[in-house]
Amino acid sequence: MLNDTTNNYLKACENWRLKFLDMDKQQLLEKLPEIKLEADYLTVKLYDRKFGIHHETGKIVTIPDFQPAEIISQLNIYTLLGFVSPQARFQDKWVPFRELRGASPFAMAFENHVLVPLALTFTGQTEKLSQAYQALGGSNLSHSDAGGLVNAFDCLPVKFLFWDGDDEFPAQANILYDVSAIDFIHVESTVSIAMEGIERLAAAAELDIKGPLFKM
User: Fold this and answer.
1) pTM score, two decimals?
2) Measuring CA to CA, which residue among 129, 98, 114 is closest to residue 213?
């Protein structure tokens, strides 16, 4: 049986699906050039995985198998479409989550349920993490023991930073966003963007996620 939290996420997806049907599709294509019109779908890549939003039903599927997308992916895509501002522009000014506009009330939860699981999952696994960035179409960074730049969406790149632990100190992690991120998507959705990134990185590294990662 689905728990109440899962039911709420399913309801949110259905609400967004209905909102999508009323969206001006041409405006979406203009505001988000990364979205493509392919046959019956608007297509977009999320962490290098291709998705299609059926422009008549609003349902989101993975491409090329046309299976229903996971809830977290659906919500991330819907909120991108629903919140992107016509004035949104990448600024190349990177900040941690807590410095995004409106993020401070969620900063402690983000650290405990996003950054801590990221650090725990990849403790002692710097090589696998470095390879995982590349598996998701990203690149490695020299900012930490195993840093990487990965596009969640083309308009919303994410920097993952990781310092491995030793006998005295546990592993540490951080996630940076361009300050423009909340011009493209709701600030709370930057949390689910991070969650999906960790899930995808762990899967690419063939590791189980450790710690209390937020679940959908």
Assistant:
1) 0.94
2) 114
Of 101, 97, 139, nearest to 118 (Cα)? 97
DSSP per residue over 46-77, as a string? ETTEEEEEETTT--EEETTT-PBPPHHHHHHH
**Model pLDDT, residue 40:** 96
User: pLDDT tens across 140-188, in order?
Assistant: 999 899 999 999 999 999 999 999 998 889 999 999 999 999 999 999 9
Question: In Å, what is the CA distance from 126 to each residue of 19, 94, 200?
Answer: 42, 23, 16
User: Cα–Cα–Cα angle for 83, 186, 212, nearest 5°?
Assistant: 145
Which string of b and e fits 63-98 if b means at least 16 CB within 10 Å? beeeeebbbbbbbbbbbbbeebeeebeeeeebebbe
pLDDT digits (tens, 9 = 90+) for 110-120: 999 999 999 99
For residue 45, give the DSSP letter.
E
Tokens 């996420």 appear where?
9
Contacts with 105 (C-beta within 8 Å, 6 or more apart), sequence order: none
